[in-house]
Amino acid sequence: MLSQTPLRDSPVSTPLGDAFDHHMSRYRSDPTYALPSIEHVWLDLIEDRVAGTSEPTLAALVTKMMDMLATPSKYTAFSEEFQALYNEARSIAYPLTHELIKSQQEIAGITRDYTLSCLDLGLVRAFEEEALTDSSMRDFVSSMLRKLRAATKAPSHEIYREVFEVYSEAAVCHLLRQRGSGRLTIDKIPESSTPGPDFACQLAVDRNGAPAELTFYIEVKALDIVDPKRRLPEMLDDGVNAHIALEEQLAQGNTVATAETEIAPLQPSGPAPDYDPRSIRLAIEKIAEKAANNFGSAQFKQGPTFALVNLLRLPLPGQGASTLAPLFYDEENGGACVSGVLWHVAFGKLGWPIYRYPEFAGDRTADGTLTREGILADPALALPAAGLIVLHYDQGAYRFDGLYDARWENALGTWTNLETEEVLHALCDAYNDSDNSKSHLYARYRNR
Q1: Gyration radius of the chain's alpha carbons
Q2: Does the residue 351 lie in any domain?
């Protein structure tokens, strides 16, 4: 699960935020005038947005809120009126973020929607700011809003899955632009009846002291949990049952109530006697299976194309950059040799042994043998990708990690390992190849 940071990179304090702080310093304990559900940083964002959107209604709402904070006694229902203004202002300034917050609030204290919880509201807000000047991001934001607001009889968990598919591409676009630091141009390719990649990219590089440009493509797939059509409703039910258990304990006079729910993205629906949440092999096989089922050769014919897997709904065991090694030594978690998940997702072979973390001193580390091939090594799949890039969340940050087959040959004959490494070096936190040539970097796990 993501460590959600919905309001990161907020602007400096604004007059509206300052007025709110002054108001709360006087009325924090006064039920008539206190505003416990208002966040200072959102007020700063809303006022800062006035200049960016040139929206007269938003400016008028900010002026009204300033007046209310200056003279609260003029209003007979101050808290309710201010909350209404705040909600309206946020819905104008950041309509998509506002809709998602509403969705979270509607089920808060009842249950938790897994897909909804995987949407980082800090990124969504960044999308909305970027959409002011970028047409691709504007299309992503509009598409997510349409899906959230559409009149449909589909259950909410299915709607959120559709929203996440768009969110996935928006996140890739936004985060890769940050990684590119001005060297990367990435644009969404319009949908058509002909299968093709999602993004066209140009990367500025140096060729013997002279500027040059690499053109390549990216095909994005956001992998969902195992058996989502059944498991997502089960997760919702688990949340409801936990809430009922808490209420029953409190009704019985308990001063402290506890209930447990398990987030298990790799667990199949129904009875699963062989499911082991600690299995490294299970993570490798399920990720490889889902990736293989989502990518097709037709999406890689336009030119050198990287397969990009979004694992924000299907998290990896936390291995840091060592996930790119076929085997690494981890002295922090039991002192054992452990198989790198992503290296085997790309290059694993049928029957290869996999090793896991020991649960306790003296516990086994053997985790069985692979029952499927990695997606860049499977001859039946024959995925013509220049490389594999994986977006995931590890150690409190988003990571892009890359892998490529050192013997892959582009049919056009104009793309070599040099170009592949230039792209992976520019866009990824770390990368490795099928020959494990970077083993000296990843063979020992470091928690950083």
Answers
A1: 25
A2: yes
| Continuous segment of H or E residues that includes residue 369 | strand 366-369
**Considering the domain boundaries, does residue 429 fall inside one?**
yes
Torsion of CA 11, 14, 20, 21, to 10 degrees: 80
Whether residue 320 has pLDDT greater than 80: yes
* Residue 412 lies inside a defined structural domain of this protein: yes
Domain boundary pick from 61, 93, 125: 93
For residue 333, give its domain range.
280-442
Instruction: Identify the pLDDT of residue 125.
Output: 94
* CA 334 from centroid of its chain's CA atoms: 29
Work out how many domains the chain is built from and give that number: 3
Query: Is 312 inside a domain boundary?
Result: yes
Q: Is the pLDDT of residue 86 over 60?
A: yes
- What pLDDT, on the 0 to 100 scale, is given for residue 255? 66
Distance CA 180, CA 188 (A): 16
Cβ-defined contacts of 85-91 (< 8 Å, 24+): 85/61, 86/38, 86/42, 86/43, 86/46, 88/61, 89/46, 89/58, 89/61, 89/62, 89/65, 90/42, 90/46
What is residue 1's predicted lDDT score, i.e. its pLDDT? Answer: 41
**What's the rounded Cα separation, in Å, for the pair 319 and 413?**
36
